[in-house]
Every structure is written in C-alpha cells, then in structure tokens.
Amino acid sequence: MDIDLIEKYIKDTYHNSSDLITRKIKIKNKNILYVFLESVSSDDKISDFMMKKISKITNSRNLFNHLKNSLPNSHILISNDLNDCFTKLASGFTCLFIDKEKEYIQIETKSILDRGITESTSEAIIRGPKDSFTENIVTNIGLIRKRIKDHNLFFDEIIIGRRSKTKVIVSYIGGVAEKKNILRIKKKLAKIDIDGILDSGYIRDFLNPKNNTFFPKIKSTERPDLASYELLNGKIIVMMDNSPFVLIIPAFLTDYIMNTEDLYQKSGNVNFTRILRFLAFILTIITPGFYIAVTTFNQEIIPDELLISLASQREGVPFPTAIEAFIMMITFEILRESDIRLPSKMGAAISIVGALVLGEAAVAAGIVAPIVIIVVAITSICGLVFTDIDFVNAIRWWRLIFLIFGALAGIIGIVIASIIFINKLATITTLDEPFLTPISPLYFKELKNSITKEPTNKTKERPTYLTHNTKKIGEK
C-alpha cells in the first residue's frame, strides 16, 4: 500500500473533516501513517502507549510483524480491506499503515464518551441494587456478568444499520432459554435493513411488525437486576450500543404489575401491594367511564342522598358530564407531560400549581363539578402506580375507550367495552405465548408467583411457559 495515496483517499472520503487526524512518521527507512478521529479516540492512549512504543523501535526489518506482536493493546486487528477502516475509525480505533505492506493494523484507542454508572432515572429504587444500565454496551454486559457468572450466559453480536453500524447483543442462558425463541429473535434482527438505529425502541417495532395492540409485548428496563432475573427465568434480552434501555422478551401483563423490588421483600407484604396494583389497573381504566355511565344513564344505582348531592354540585355547570370528565382528563395528561419534560425542580412546581390551583379554580368558576375533580384524581393516582411509558400509553387509550362507551350507552356500554377489552387482551400473543399467561391459559403453579409471591426458598421451578428446563432450586 502507498501511504500517500491512502492518506489522500481517507481525507477525500471524510471531506477533510475537522476531527480527522493523520500523521506520517519515519522509522529508519520505513514510512508509517497513522489515522484516527479525535472526537471518538483518546489522544493520551495514542501518545502514551502506541507512539512511545513505535518511537523506541530501532530496527525497521520486518516492522509490520514487530508492531503487530509488540504493541501494548489487547484489541489489535489486522485487515487488508481499506473500507473497513472507516467503520473502525468511527468506533474509536487508530489505523496504522506501513508503506508497501498489503495489510494494516487497527488498534483500539477508544475515548470514554459515556456517563458513569448511576441510579436508574425511569424506575424508582427503594430497596435493591442502585446501579443501572448506561449507553456503553460493554459496561452493560459487565453489569450482567457480575450477577450471573455462568459460562452458559451467552452474548451474541449482530451489527445493524447501513450507516450507523450499531452493535446489538442478544443475551440468553444456554440450556434455559428456548432455542426456537433465540433463533426467531436473531432472524428478525438480521433482517433489519435501515440507515441507522439510535435507541432500542427502534428495534421493538421490527421485532413486533404486527402492531395490533396498544399494550407492549416487549418490556424495557434500565435495571440490571431485573434483566438478570428474567434471564434466569428463561427469557431473552436484547441490548444495543448507545442505549441504556434493555429489551426483555417476551413480556406478559403480569410483568407490568410486578415490580423488581418485590423480589427483595417478604411475600406477605408483596401480595398486598400486587393486589393493590391490580385494583389500580382496573380503576384507572374504568373509573371515568363508569362515573359517566351511572350519572347520565343509570342513576337508579346511586343512593338517593348521594344523587341529590351530585345534582346540587352540578347546578350552573354548562357542560355534560362526559365533556367535564374529558376536559379534566386532557388537562391532567398535559400537566403530566409537562412534568416529565421539564427539569425536576420546575416540574414539581408545575404539578402543584396544576393540581391545586387549576382544579380549585375550575370548580369555583362553575366549569366542572367537584365530584369530577375527585373522579379524575382517583383515575390519575391509580395510573401513577405504573411507570413503563408504553404500558401507561395503553392505559390512556383504553380509559378513553371506556369513557366513550359509558357516555354512549351507560352501564351497557361499560359491559360491552369490558368484553372487548378482555377479548383483546386474550388474543394478544408474544413469542406465540398468550399475553395473559399465566392467568389465561391457567398455569396454577406459576399463578402463585405472578399475581402473588411465593417465598424465594419455595420457588423451586421456572415458569413452564418460558422453558423446559424448569428446575431452579436443587434438592439436598
């Protein structure tokens, strides 16, 4: 290779980009060219390790082999494909060319561009490990490796993106996860043909091309302890470089009711909180529609004293009950969205102003009745129990559907909406398993550790719908 032509070719390809650094040096009678991108490479690593070693070379005979075998770096690759150089440069490698040699050396000199390991920002942690995944995929693999030290824990790499060349890892425990599911996920990932993927959310749509439901069939998490727990149960996780969110496949309704911290608490306390979450799930969806149904169409259900009180509260209110509830629900969703997007200190102030001042002002102005504020508050508080944004969005849609059916047909409409809701949940599948598993179809043994929680020392088997290797605790 002629290093002058190589340098010109690389510079022309990058259009003399400001972060492209090329330098030629001469060792005895041999010309050497090294190239790197200072935006993703560490100049200290290049200067302190690579260049110090090269500058000490006194014999230029067989220089290529000498450098290949003596450079102090554990990630050294040899290539003869010049186009491969561009991918490696963008990945933080330095490419070392020696004049008249057919091959060149790729040396990893990656700069640390990621934040350190911090506490999860999307999943509150009260009890349990405080570390969370980061944008560095090597760090994420390490967070799982330090929890599961089994040699059967595999991390299979797939490169996705014509331009981004993003590293995606499929992780599973061999002999525990089902082979057919592993192959199915890998096949879907291999078929992805896109310019680039910027977050694991991109992958979700390709793994679930038939998006015929509001409910998510793939769960995402920032918590390594949850990912490790699911791997031990026979699930598969997909992680990608530059994203702190790991995908867990498959995901069922009970996975969104369960909280990671349930694993670290006494089963009796967990049983109570899980029942509360199931109750909150039902209330947050059905409450506004049910209130509209009974106050508009089925007033005979309401006790006379309460009906008189509700009627007096509605004096002077210009809107129908359905419009009142819809306005307040939309207002709350806007407040919630602003709370999420604004910085934390400002967000808290906005929430207080929105909840107290706007609600009280709306009642005082006669725009809505006080009972509507209570109904929307109960609905919203129950919805705050769930943190997964995709699951929350599904709840929002179904809440609106129940509201419309209740406003059109009263209790009969609520019953119809409930039938549609249950039927829809029952028809969702994830990796060919029903979304309502283990409730429907009924797996009695697994039900004891999904809706409720068994003590850890009595949970001797993995779920049979996830793996055939069910034995979890050995018998002594």
Plain-language structure description:
There is one protein chain. The chain has helices spanning 3-13, 43-55, 63-70, 84-90, 137-145, 179-190, 200-207, 224-233, 253-257, 267-296, 304-313, 321-341, 344-364, 370-383, 389-427, 444-447, and strands at residues 20-27, 30-37, 76-79, 93-98, 104-108, 153-160, 166-173, 219-221, 236-240, 246-249, 429-430, 433-434. It is α+β, with helices and mostly antiparallel strands. A five-stranded antiparallel sheet has the order 1-2-4-5-3, sandwiched between helices. It has a five-stranded antiparallel sheet with strand order 6-7-9-10-8, with helices on both faces. Helix 10 packs across helix 15 (389-427). It is elongated and about 105 Å long. The chain starts with a helix and ends in a 29-residue tail after the last helix. The mean pLDDT is 87.
Keywords summarizing the entry:
16 helices, alpha+beta, 5-stranded antiparallel sheet, single chain
Break the fold down into its secondary structure elements and pairings.
Layout: H1 3-13, E1 20-27, E2 30-37, H2 43-55, H3 63-70, E3 76-79, H4 84-90, E4 93-98, E5 104-108, H5 137-145, E6 153-160, E7 166-173, H6 179-190, H7 200-207, E8 219-221, H8 224-233, E9 236-240, E10 246-249, H9 253-257, H10 267-296, H11 304-313, H12 321-341, H13 344-364, H14 370-383, H15 389-427, E11 429-430, E12 433-434, H16 444-447
